[in-house]
Amino acid sequence: MKFPWLELAKLARPRSLSAPAEPQCDEVSNDALGSWLRQPKSRDTTTQENELDDVQAELLIEAAKVGNVDEVRRLCEVVGVDVDMRGYMGWTAAHWAARQGHVHVLEVLHRLGANLDSLDCRGDCLLHKAAANGQLQTCKWLLQHTFNVHATNKHGMTPLDLAREKVRHDKDATTVACEALLADAAECTF
């Protein structure tokens, strides 16, 4: 990503620490900064806006990953970042919060109007992410919010399938409880 203001800052470095006796206006016309300033500027700011959107999306996603609910709230409410912006593989901040088990972040994203039904590029919903990572409390929260335990991704896998796969590799109590919760939910037929 290139930001013109960063290029400008690099070009505008002082040549010496001592202040010149008088303004050096002619230097601007001969150095790289002057050359950059004289270039015709495009009125199309779409590229810059897209780069800024990408940076903001990454900041939101990173805040969700680490469970920084205050930063998630600030980015969405103050900065105006779109709560449903997507990053790598189509993951939103909600996907990362579910994967990492940050229910408090999911609650804030839900209140901010996030699309909690969004799917990533593999067709995974939030329940897939939580189940695949043995996030028991997140799975409980998602099931309470009527997430479908029978939802299949592009590989035909349900959240329960992913939880069972996780249990084969990691038999800690939370992962086993997560699989049991999803198995019980899958058996409910009412």
UniProtKB/TrEMBL annotation:
ANK repeat spans: 89-121, 122-154
Alphabetical list of SUPFAM superfamilies matching this protein: Ankyrin repeat
Gene3D superfamilies: Ankyrin repeat-containing domain (1.25.40.20)
Taxonomy, superkingdom: Eukaryota
Keyword field: ANK repeat, Repeat
Cited InterPro entries: Ankyrin_rpt, Ankyrin_rpt-contain_sf
PANTHER family the UniProt entry points to: ANKYRIN REPEAT DOMAIN-CONTAINING PROTEIN 39-RELATED (PTHR24171)
Protein name: Uncharacterized protein
